Request: fold
Amino acid sequence: MNQERRNKILTITFAVLVAAGIGLLLAGRDRGEINKSLFKIEDLQSVNKITFTSPRGSFDLSYDGVRWKVGQYDADDQLVTVLFATLQQVEPKRMVSANQRDEIADLAEKQGTTLQLLNETVLIRQLTVVGNDRKSETYFLDPKTEPYVMVIPGYRVYVGGVFEVGELGWREKRIFNFNWRNFKKLEARYPGQPENGFAIEDNGSGFDIVGAVETDTTRLNDYLDAVSLLVAKEILPKDNASYDTLSERQPTASVLIYDVGDNVRTLDLFAPSREASEVVGRTGENEFVLFDRAQILPIVKTREYFKEKSR
Reply:
């Protein structure tokens, strides 16, 4: 075999190897390499309104320049933080297999939540989120893409949870949320046992039980902290017939907070059944809220509880 023929064979062989390598590379990309930024919102900071639409209804989160709102109410700041962190960190893990795509698209239509992220009225991004029945996988899709399985790298969490929260779930659930600089007085009332009630006011040198001889200041301060930090487990729907009869009942205890302008925030509490682990309350806005029993124990103290014990 002369050199010229040998060179032609080597050239052809090299060309075949290069073509095969390119083919394998492209095939590898088709199978395994996913565009991680497929669902990224480039300018998340510019989003000041998010519309949630699902078979359960539609509602908006909107930023008023100070804080996020859901309707006329303050939104839960921690939940808003979780939502934006999820949108920032979530990535596609893989495209849904071809034989599942129609099934997932149908699931998204029937059960999914569609988000529209806007800057004022300008649509920045629209996507639909739905999870599987086992809550082990979350799928994202939009009008231009096939569904993808989504993950947050480094975490084994169900990504879809924050997108499934209903309108009431987005509400701020801190009951009193009072400003200590604006706080004037607290009243605790026990309608069935009025002698157990008390009031807390500033006596000139700090807050104290009105009319008490000696007050245990540690217990008093712990009580005020517990009241100021009280957070409902859940805000109950207004059409929940299970609690209609409570409107006609006398509460077991009531806590009232007055500010310096004499605006008042009220929480009525109703005695749970002996076996119940939850306590129902009613706010001054006539909304029913739910607490774990352990949450309520620190704020249903009687006047006697605050008396300093003699040593």
